[in-house]
Amino acid sequence: MHVTHHWADIGYHFAADCAGNIFECRDIRFKGSGIKYQNTGVISIVLLENLTDTGDTMLSFFATKLDSVPEPQKKAVQTLVNVLTKHFHISTLGGHREYAAKLAAQNDSESRTCPGNVGMKFVYGLRSNLKIDAP
Description:
Elements: E1 14-16, E2 22-24, E3 45-47, H1 71-88, H2 96-105, H3 116-130
Parallel strand pairs: 1-3
Antiparallel strand pairs: 1-2
């Protein structure tokens, strides 16, 4: 989607697929573009899977939905976040919807359900394990 909008590249710094492969996307030295007005000082990671459930209102662009983050993907992201946290002294971790909610509270048009309820459950677990605050 980012490329079809004629952007120069993908707006995320990293992408993680279900097999546990981590892809470097936008160079980490450059600001990402995944969160409207809130990209400064943010390292963004996209999970390459549909992690919505029946409680989500997001229109699904994928044929399948998962009821949990696949173990290889989970382990890879946990390792990546752990390394990034130590190297960059990260103190907050959040899902896209948490950042968007801050904008919605300010009467901005930004609204997101991603990374889905399943993805948010994973984010909550990461925060708890790493003892990192919510945004």
